[in-house]
Amino acid sequence: MTEWILNLDREIVLGLNALHTPVWDSIMLFLSSRTAWIPLYVIIAALMFVPKWYGKHSSAFRCGSRLPIWAIGLTGVLAVLLCFGITDQLTNIVKDAVQRLRPSHDPLLEGMLALPEGPGGLYGFFSAHAANTFGLAVLTSLIFRRKWYSVAIVLWAAAVGFSRIYLARHFTTDVICGAVFGTAVAFIIYSLYAYVFSLLYRHRH
Predict the structure, then answer these.
(1) Is residue 167 classed as helix, strand or coil in its secondary structure?
(2) What is the DSSP letter of 67?
(3) Which contacts (CB < 8 Å, 24+ apart) does range 58-66 have?
(4) Using CA atoms in the order 196, 199, 204, 205, what is the torsion angle rounded to 10 degrees?
(5) Packed helices 172-203 and 128-144: angle between N→C axes, nearest 10 degrees
(6) Angle between the 22-32 and 147-166 helix axes, to the nearest 10 degrees?
(7) Is the pLDDT of residue 9 over 70?
(8) SS3 (DSSP) at 59
């Protein structure tokens, strides 16, 4: 079963990577770029301090009339930073422990892949891009509770994950496991976020 999954991973990477063109390469490199999305992160952080942005089912909306907006926004920003820190650091630990080669370093795929972003580091399980983006997407969706935002940000995270496969920096299972891990961390951090809100709310009373 394990060998079947590994072979399927290789076939998917080869199939997607074979579709590369200069235009698609540019799009996928943009999606995978960490610095290109800094404006998005700044906007999300700024929205944490906008009371009307929170949906009616959000913790911030329910407690907002009792708490100053700076406390609401700061709690959200700190939650996101904590989520990023956990997903990013634990991903590196898992990569070093599992030591699964990236597609670009797989001997069975040698010379068969286009590598617009270069070969990257040696190990790829699991994807830090997927863990970080899905962690951000799911956590902020839970915080804001706006349906259209949730759909858009999760699709963005999925597109980033797809770009990692296209660019042959990760296998599909690297991305899926990274996404699952990031989502799990997001739910845990959100539970802590909601608990902090309940403490702040009680303190104000």
Answers:
(1) coil
(2) S
(3) 58/143, 58/144, 58/145, 59/143, 59/193, 59/194, 59/197, 60/143, 60/197, 61/145, 63/197, 63/200, 63/201, 66/201, 66/204, 66/205
(4) 150
(5) 30
(6) 120
(7) yes
(8) helix
Contact residues for 197 (Cβ-Cβ < 8 A; gap 6+): 59, 60, 63, 67, 75
Looking at residue 102, the DSSP 8-state letter turns out to be: P
- pTM of the predicted model, to two decimals? 0.92
Phi-psi region of 22 (alpha: psi -120 to 50; beta: other; left: phi over 0): alpha
* pLDDT, tens only, 57-71: 888 777 656 778 888
Residues 6+ apart with CB under 8 A from 93: none
Q: Which of 3, 7, 9 lies closest to 169 in space, CA to CA?
A: 9
**Token couple for 183:** 């989502």
Residue showing tokens 């902020």: 140
Extract the tokens encoding 56.
């009616």
Buried b (16+ CB within 10 A) or exposed e, 173-191: bbbbbbbebbbebbeebbe
Virtual CA dihedral for 99, 173, 158, 180, nearest 10 degrees? Answer: -80
For 33-56, what is each residue's pLDDT tens digit?
989 999 999 999 999 999 889 988
Integer Cα distance of 137 and 156 in angstroms: 8
Tally the residues of the chain. 205
